[in-house]
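Request: Give me one sample?
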Amino acid sequence: MRWSRPGQGLVEPLNFIAVAEECGLILPIGRWVMATACADAMRWQGAGQAICVAVNLSAVRFRDPDLAGSVAKALAHSGLSAGLLEIEFTESAAGTIASLKALRASGIQLAMDDFGTGYSSLSYLKRRPLTMIKIDRSFILGLPDDHKSCATVNAILAMTKSLGLKVKAEGVERLGQAMLLRDMGCDQLQGYYFSKPVPAAEIPELLTRSWSWPEIPHVLYQDEAD
């Protein structure tokens, strides 16, 4: 999500999302992002690339009693299968267990973002119908050389795998990080090593790329609307 502000160029989400949440604009913005991401993913599927698209949800969106219905409308309007939509949220924005269960019951994937920066416990993870956790980039920055970072990531992988969850590492910027995470058993990788954020129109070209090193895990490409 980028705001094209006249005279100032592109404004990063960090600089306007909080204001949008305070004034209530995050609700229409969130609905637009969801509809756009689903439509983009359906268009890529029609071109032969059936990939899962991940959309971040604000904590404010989880206060909407019709959240599940709103997401269902976006899927129905676009024609995208629920299994190809992943909703990402932070621990503080996790909402009620009931709202998460309603989303998961429809087949939507659920991922906890920025894992490791809050106070999540095994009990917390066990009670929520998650399919994925995303290791925060702060734990990836020191790889592959920092021993403590390696130990922390290994511990997160062991814990989450024991619960039957998949793991995605964000903030992967170097080949050495990617290869180590692959060898550790990380399911998905995300970061500038593969691509910086790009407009949706440039995603199809990214999907034609390949990497020469063996057994690369599934790579997540993010739409600009994400």
About this structure: The two ends are 6 Å apart (CA to CA). DSSP finds eight helices and nine strands in the chain.
